[in-house]
Amino acid sequence: EAQVTQNPRYLITVTGKKLTVTCSQNMNHEYMSWYRQDPGLGLRQIYYSMNVEATDKGDVPEGYKVSRKEKRNFPLILESPSPNQTSLYFCASSPARRDRNTEAFFGQGTRLTVV
Amino acid sequence: DAKTTQPNSMESNEEEPVHLPCNHSTISGTDYIHWYRQLPSQGPEYVIHGLTSNVNNRMASLAIAEDRKSSTLILHRATLRDAAVYYCILRVTGNQFYFGTGTSLTVIP
Description:
Helix content of chain A is about 0%, strand content about 50%. Chain A is an all-beta fold. The N and C termini of chain A lie far apart (about 35 Å). By secondary structure, chain B is an all-beta fold. Chain B contains no helices and ten strands. Chain B is globular, with a radius of gyration of 13 Å.
């Protein structure tokens, strides 16, 4: 089954304690991205990657890092989490065709609480 | 600045058609218009997308204005399972997706 898998689904952590949220897709997609969803703000893009070793900032990258060492994985790293990073996070993937005439697949989300 | 604007909420009676509008006045010629929906506690789910021509699939229809500055998602017969937040999104050069704030659709039995 084609899917995007995020782990963990729920996470409560303390300020300053480094954490990683994993994202994996089994569709051989080139494009992967991370979003955060906050009430009243919709989904905002944090980082995206067009392919292995190619990452770029989205609209709200501050406080986050990503890496793309393998095509299937795109982990989101919070080196020093703060309470304003409490949010619902989604990973997505899609083919990166030149004409962009493709759909994206989203993971089930990771609810992060930083206390 | 938001690339798409949608009404915050809409209501529809069950088994009636629903027209969900979206404005994207700053769209460029190569941006694709996508629609996704999000059920409670789930990730966004693809509904439909298009560039210039109207599109139909098993879930919905997408009507795109001739000047491409607006579009309408049409659900032909709303069911209770269609109650969700519907997002109008632009997929731009570079493959990025820009989400609007979405329309919360309530379906009344």
